[in-house]
Recover the amino acids of this structure.
DNA sequence: TGATTATATGTCAGGAATGACATATATTAT
DNA sequence: ATAATATATGTCATTCCTGACATATAATCA
């Protein structure tokens, strides 16, 4: 997976285009990253729709504000598990998740 | 999350009904478990459709046969991350994943 | 403006997931 | 029936993710 390289790139603020355009990412790796980014965005959106602060969500999830911030920022240190569990505590259904996954577009510009 | 309790129950071979029927699982926890079980099944199905052995998939995923077996068995020790990455290396698309998530039915009988 | 509240970023000890391995049990051939 | 192949189950050291905390940087408001 080479987390380190991705982390390094991202820390430079160079998110350009789709994750699949990062050099040296296999298609599956790219798909995996895209997927997490899609969920990150959905998480932030859902939380904001519910007019919750990161602090409040953190409490609900028994996590911490910093974790939530990292999740929403698409930090590679956060797992799919945590992303999904966050969405679930916000009341997202399986169908809802499915919709988030199929959402078109992933390109991000810094 | 109380993995231990679930592990203990499951190890007894008592998977009955939906995960949500396990005592003391909050709705989100139950949804999370159901979700993983759904992906477990999809994984096995997909692998078999591709006429692959667990060993072959393991190699493709750079994992091990035992991990694959555990995944397909719905072992609580495996993460969503690994499940999803497995499906991705098998060529599952985001849409495909979404379909797997919304699949009806979760009840399992031992 | 400065105070308050929200979010971002960095670090780290502790806990959870991992691949590897051994080995048991099915399943399928011959 | 027995060999060969596939899958299941258990254990463990290493690796990765976690919550917690400190602190920086925004955003909102008096």
């Amino acid at each position: 997976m080479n987390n380190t390289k991705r982390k390094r790139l991202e820390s430079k603020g160079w998110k350009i285009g789709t994750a699949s355009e990062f050099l040296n990412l296999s298609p599956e790796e790219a798909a995996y990253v895209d997927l997490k980014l899609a969920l990150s965005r959905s998480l932030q959106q859902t939380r904001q729709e519910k007019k919750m602060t990161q602090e409040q969500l953190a409490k609900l999830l028994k996590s911490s504000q910093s974790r939530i911030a990292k999740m929403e920022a698409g930090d590679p240190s956060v797992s799919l598990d945590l992303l999904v569990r966050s969405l679930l505590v916000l009341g997202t259904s399986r169908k809802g998740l499915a919709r988030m996954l199929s959402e078109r577009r992933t390109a991000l510009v810094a």
